Amino acid sequence: MSTTPEREDGSPTGSTTPRTTPKAKMGKRQKAKISRGIQYAILIVIAVVVALLADWSTLLETFGRVDLAIGMFPDVITKALKNTVIFTLLGFILGLAIAIVLALMRLSSVGVYRWLAFVYTEFFRGLPALVVFLVMGFGLPLAFRGFNLPQLVIIMIALALVSSAYMAETIRAGIQAVPKGQVEAARSLGMSSSRAMVTIVLPQAMRIILPPLTNELILLTKDSSLAYILGSSVDGRELTALARAEIVNTANLTPFIVVAVCYLIITIPLSYLSRVLERKYGSAEPGAN
């Protein structure tokens, strides 16, 4: 009886069956690289198609008149941009003061205070900012004879009413994030509840809520554009009011581009500040040094 010689791996020496090698699997990094390449290619194709189909001469004539843009200076900076910053800061400061009171009322042990703060926040969070400006600027003077406040005060109050409702909830969440043990320790040292709140809780809560408050300041900057519906003198115009006046005078939309750049000058640094504060305080535990 003959035997067939075998190889070391146990297969017959005369076997012609080809050896198979396992296929190399594509790694996650390689798949991600290919996916990004496809996405970039699609974006490039879309950009090329838009560039080829766009009517650049019409766009430049409508939105890119350099002579009209230059003609808006220096008023767009010395008056409109300055007024926008003033309106925003005044509305934010007043709104923050109201928001702190509302947050403390929401956390109060007195039920009436909690109910009033809840109604206020839900009411103004549910109203469009435009409605608040219309009521403050036109509704109240009609309802109450002699209710004629300066325009700056009306804008400040309208912005404060809108922003305070949102900031109150942010501040309340920040206060609740402070460990209760710190308040109990302060009370054991003889501090009153109000003093512990002012000296212990609020400073730590403000660190926690700085990033969202910065975002609220950005939103308030854009909401200040609604002041144009109240009308204003030349010196009292903010950015949007100036842009509308220039568009009426020139029958061109270039002023909107100039104003958009001015808004970006305000909001981009604030957005960067918000990210910095979020990295610094966002993951920090309350009470940590």
From TrEMBL:
It is a multi-pass membrane protein. GO terms for biological process: amino acid transport. It is found in: Cell membrane. Residues 81-274 form the ABC transmembrane type-1 domain. Its main location: membrane. It comes from the Bacteria. Residues 1-10 have a biased composition (Basic and acidic residues). Residues 11-21 have a biased composition (Low complexity). One of its GO terms (cellular component) is ATP-binding cassette (ABC) transporter complex. Keywords: Amino-acid transport, Cell membrane, Membrane, Transmembrane, Transmembrane helix, Transport. One of its GO terms (molecular function) is transmembrane transporter activity. Residues 1-30 are annotated as: Disordered. The chain crosses the membrane at residues 38-60, 80-105, 126-144, 150-168, 253-273. Belongs to the binding-protein-dependent transport system permease family. PANTHER family: L-CYSTINE TRANSPORT SYSTEM PERMEASE PROTEIN TCYL, MEMBRANE COMPONENT OF AMINO ACID ABC TRANSPORTER. This is Polar amino acid transport system permease protein.
